[in-house]
Specification:
Strand content: 15-25%
Shape: globular
Structural class: alpha+beta
Radius of gyration: 24 Å
Distance between the termini: 62 Å
Largest sheet: 7 strands, mixed
Number of helices: 5
Order of helices and strands: HEEEEHEHEHEEEH
Amino acid sequence: MSKTKKQGSSKSKIIIPIVILAVLFFGIGFGMSYFKNNLFTVMKVPDFNLTDQNNKKITNKDMLGKVYLVEFFFSKCPTICPVMNTNMRFIEDEINDPDFGIISISIDPENDTPELLKQHAKKIGAKSPNWHFLTGNRDYIGNLADQFDIYVGDKEDESENLNHSGMIALVDQEGNIRCRFDQNNKPILYYSGLNYEDKEGTNPKLNGKFHPDREYLIEDIKKLLK
């Protein structure tokens, strides 16, 4: 073999691994960027038809064209609901966009009449006309929570009927529930409306000073509003 051919062969042996490594690094970088900047589509938001604090019927179709959040709560809740309300109010102020809304569905409709929900909205300082506090039939609301796959206690169980999850659904302008990916590139499905005693969001605490999912929601709502 000539000296020129040997040199060409040696260069090829060096260049090919470099190219492969470059492609791998690009692919990894692209993949990480994708998971960081894109949101997963969980499912279509379940159909809902309930009455808000202004005695107006609100459906999922009324919310088309808006990015919005969905939570389950009740006005007399002494524990996590005030925390969730505070975090929702913070998000409302941070987003401050006419195409953003919030759907807060009461799991205690016998108490949470439209009139009482109107008082509650005023009490917590809700500003947006797109923040709807909804009430209706308790069986219907329980079934709706099941469709969302957000925990709400069985109404027939006295010890559980007013228990509920602190999770929040993020819905895009086309009516799809969306979410970000976690550090392992798995969709988180829902966001937490709670406070935490640690930055990582592993230890919930009512008076915790950290609320990582609140910040995630603000980021992701802004992505969807672009």
